[in-house]
Each structure stands twice: as C-alpha cells, then as structure tokens.
Amino acid sequence: MAARLVFSALSGIPRIRPGDDLAEVIGQALEREHIRLEPDDVIVVTQKIVSKAEGRHVNLSAVTPSPHALELAAETGKDARLVEVILQDSRSVLRTRPGLIIVEHRLGFVCANAGVDHSNVESPDGSVGEWVLRLPSDPDRSAADLRQALEARCGIAPGVLITDSHGRAWRLGTVGVAVGAAGLPTLLDLRGQPDLFHYKLQATVVGLADEIAAGASALMGQAAEGRPVVHLRGLSSDGPPGRAADLIRPLEEDLFR
Amino acid sequence: MAARLVFSALSGIPRIRPGDDLAEVIGQALEREHIRLEPDDVIVVTQKIVSKAEGRHVNLSAVTPSPHALELAAETGKDARLVEVILQDSRSVLRTRPGLIIVEHRLGFVCANAGVDHSNVESPDGSVGEWVLRLPSDPDRSAADLRQALEARCGIAPGVLITDSHGRAWRLGTVGVAVGAAGLPTLLDLRGQPDLFHYKLQATVVGLADEIAAGASALMGQAAEGRPVVHLRGLSSDGPPGRAADLIRPLEEDLFR
Predict the structure, then answer these.
(1) Which of A33, A95, A255 sits opposite B95 (nearest CB)?
(2) Domains identified in chain A and CATH numbers
(3) pLDDT digit string, tens, across residues A164-186
(4) Quick one: which of B216, B164, B228, B222 has its CA closest to B15?
(5) CB of A122 within 8 Å of any CB in chain B?
(6) Nearest CA in chain A to B29
(7) pTM for this predicted structure
(8) What pLDDT, on the 0 to 100 scale, is given for residue A105?
(9) What ipTM was reported for this prediction?
C-alpha cells in the first residue's frame, strides 16, 4: 500500500474559553470520530485556541498607547492600542508600511503584528470591548503540556504541533508554520546521508514541522474557527523530537534583515 | 465524517529519463494503487522528475565558467562550473556566503543555487560526467501540459503541482513550495470575508499551493528519489485556478531584498 499522510479535521470543537481543558475537548472529538490515538500520530492545533484556553486576551479599551505606539500607528494607519500590544510582544520592529508592521517577536519569530490576532476573538467573559489575542507565552511549553495531558486522557502521547500563519519575504500568501511543538522532529537533518548515486547531500535540513503545519493549515482554512484541530496519521519520524524554537534562524545567520 | 486531506505517495515510480511520458508513468502507478482520479484530486510531482523528463540535464564537464562565475566560486568555495550554470539561470545574485549563493531565478523565485539540482542526477544517456539539473524552463506550462496529458490518459483532469524545496529568510530548514501549478487555486483570497464575529478579515491571502506542496513534501522526503509523485484527495477548492508564478512577491512589494 502507498505511504500515506492523512490529515483529519476534528469536527464539533466548541468555542474555547479561558481555562478550558483542551485535552478533554480533543479527547472527546477523537472519540466522536472513532479515532484511537497511535504513538506516531500528531495533533495539530491552531495558536488561536491555545491562546484562548490560556486566557491571552487583551481588551483594547484597557490599553493606553505609548508615544512610540502612537507614532507607528500614525505611520501605518493601524489602531494605536493594537500597535501598543504588538510592541509589548516585540523585540524590534523590522519594517513598516501602511497597514503592515513586521517585527521580531520576543519569542524570535519574524512575523506581521507580533502574531497578535484580532479576528474571531470574542470577549472571554461576556464583557463589552474589542478583544485581541496574544501568542501563548511559551508555545513549546504549551505543546509539551498538551501532549502530557493527552497522554493522561487517551493513554497515548501523540506529537503536538501549534500552528500560526506567517507571511514570507519573497512569496505571497500566508502559510501555516509551527510555533510550538512537542514529541515530533521539527528539523530533519539529512546532511551526510548518501543519495541514490552516493553523492553526499551537503545542505539538506528539512523544516519538517513547518511542512506538517502547512499541510494541516490547508485543511484548517483561515476564515472561521471551525477547524482548529487536525489529527495526522502516517508520519514516520526517525529523528529526535525537537522544539518549534529550533526552526527560528539565529539572528547571526540572517542574511535578509 | 471528518474533513480529510489524504496524501498518498505512489510507489514503483521508475527512474525518469529524458523524453519519458510522465502521464503514462503516473497513470500506471495510480492503477497499481487502485486509485481512480476524481476531479478535485491533485497530482504533486517533484521538480526533479519533471526536469529529467524534459532533459534539463547539464554536463558540468562541458561548462566553461565565466570570469564572474570564477569570482563567485572563489568567494563561496563552490564548483565554478556549477556557479556558471546557476548564473545562467539567474536575474541577479542577492547574497553569497561560503557554500551558499542566493539568487533571483529568471522565473522570479528567490532561492539558493537557482534551483539547480545536483543530488540524485544520473547521466541521461549513459555517458560519463557530473550532471546537474536545471528547473523546467516554464514550470507552470509543464504543469498544464501534464494535467492535459493525465486527462487524455485517465479521463479526468486533476490539479497538478510541481514542487521544489526552498529555504526561508528567517526560518531554518527547507520546505516544499509550488514552482508549477495547473487546475487548482494557488492563492486563496479571503479578504473581505466576514469572520465568526463579523469582523472583516483585512489581509488574509493564503498561499494554498505552497501549503499543499509543503504537506506533500513531508511525505516525499528529500534524500532519495523514491517518492517523487504524491496523489492528494480531499481538497475542496473554491477559488479560481492559478499559476505558481502568482505566488511570487513582486519586486516592488519586497521589503527584504
């Protein structure tokens, strides 16, 4: 039989609120789909539901923009309170254009708006206001915690991947990338492995976790919160498990900043 | 039932030589796997086998490096004849480091080594020499031709995606990207589509073809020529079909060159 990767979007995931038990929500959804976890399975979840469960909401009406935020807001035409939240999560601002702020997030990601998410964010407690969501404070830790909780719930520890959508320097369109990972290889180092004709591959390190995040994102879609959890079967992962942080190019190797 | 994306690597794909009929090779492989094409299916193939079928081989022993190639070879420690082939396929050289040349390919891709491939390249005609492979001269056209040939062979025109592996500016590891496409959306424009809470999504254009290319690449692997063809089922593609060229960010919108 053909080698297969099967991505299945779990249906019936409810709206997630602060404090919700994601492992329980995912465990129930797996049961509804009659999926029994196997050790090489991977559970892919969007950053959005992890951030919601962790209560990473910010009410913009409670934010007072700094002078720097006011300046950047004027430059870009963005809401100064949103810019303030972006700056609080950033190490540095790399580029700005009308409507666009590209930063180095304090976690190391180079991305627009510091990953601060303002679509599909409802009030966490029913109060009025315009809410945005910050990334989890430590997404690799969130992934490891979810993996452990899934093991407690389901008896098997799957790989866990937390995804976000990033733009690219030279290509249009966002793609899913891994911002948190546990229990699966994130970078696959094929260097030194001989190819078919015994030529040593010189520079092949594969961003495996990003490839999986992208494939899952093609199924998750972007507009609605309808498919925030994807189950993946078929990955045969030879390498040692890694972190999503391992995928971030160190500043000293960055040729394009 | 859960929404699914199923990537299946077709087994038994032989080594491809110049002039081989890829549609016939793929048609036979589908039959061996008992897969009957459906209209929304996508056939994902590596650039390598398309280039081989199109005879895009270059024998390095027949290449005479230009002065510019000799200079860049000295700077980077790369084979001057390989550098010459890279330069012939490039519009401009963006960055160089020991072992690394990043260019704008004349097709618009920003990538290492102008996509010139030197692993798993056997002699096309049995003659001695060290061979490399250039990208197809017009990969979107190659994809459209393969789609048409598959329709003639199988009675159904699937989407066709030609993939290559590219590095990223800020992230480590290569990921699969679309270098040729036909019969499926490549960019999915969600702008203006209301989200769950009726907030208008402002800037969401999804690089769908790159997400699919990445997912397929996670299955194809990198080191061997063993899995150059992947069949994808489950994509429900609402948008109009596009080209892989649509994914290239125009130079005037590039903030990082």
Answers:
(1) A255
(2) 6-54+137-249 (3.30.1330.100), 57-133 (3.90.1660.10)
(3) 999 999 999 999 999 999 999 99
(4) B228
(5) yes
(6) A2
(7) 0.94
(8) 97
(9) 0.94
